[in-house]
Each structure stands twice: as structure tokens, then as C-alpha cells.
Amino acid sequence: MKSVLGKLIQQEFGRERYEIYTKKLEKKESMDIFCDIYEELRVKSPTHLNQSLKKLLDSVQISIHISRNFIYITAGYVISFILLLLFGLAWFIAYPALLLISVCYFYKLAEFMKNRYCDRDVRIVLIYKIALFHLLEEICLQKEGHEVY
What we know:
With 149 residues, the chain is mainly α. It is 85% helix and 0% strand. The chain is elongated, with a radius of gyration of 22 Å.
């Protein structure tokens, strides 16, 4: 299971580059990542850059949504678990139901943990965001007639 932000980077740059970026982060070579992403984005059209920005914002929003909703998922799981125990259902109904909601909850827990605590993907996305914003700002300045060095 990958985080939402990790999936975004893999979509934009491919799995091989994602692996390279994670290795460079471990070696604290963030500038190399920035330069590689910048050079990759520099040849893209302004329309493609705007679409990339939209994908980035959507992915960040999904990641935040997963984190915010986890408290409600946990509350729903606990309430469901307690109610199933209190209803006094037959064991052949109660046990599979408890197992099913537990499996679903632990999947959501794994998803939450992956998205909440994947520092590596967050750092790569921040570098990507900086390169993307820099290029979009450059394009805006060029449209206004300013020289960009």
C-alpha cells in the first residue's frame, strides 16, 4: 500500500525515479531531486503544468481527508463492535460480523498510518511543489514581459 502522495509522484515521474528520489533523500541529496524534477517539468507545456498542479492539490486534499476522517471511522468501529456484542446475536452471525468490521477497520488503519506518517513522500512532494511553483511563476513573469534569469 502506497500513500496518496507516493502514488502521485509515481504517476508523474515513474516508479524508477521514485525509488531514485527515496535513495537520494536518505543521502540528503534534496537539491539533486529538485534539479531532476525541475528539468523534467521545464519541457512541459503550461497547460500540463497547470494540470500537474491540480493533481498535486487534489492528492494533498485526499491525504488530509483520510487523516481527518479517521477519528469518525474509529468511533464507528468501536460503536459497531460494542453494539454487535450487546445485541446478543447468535455466534454464527456475530463472529463473522465482528471479523468483517475488524478487517475493514484495520485496512483503514493501515491506510491512515501510511498517509499520515510517510515523511519520505511528503518531502518529495514538497520538492515537487517548489519546482512546479517556480516554473509556473516563471511562465507568468514571461507573459508579463519580464526577463527571467
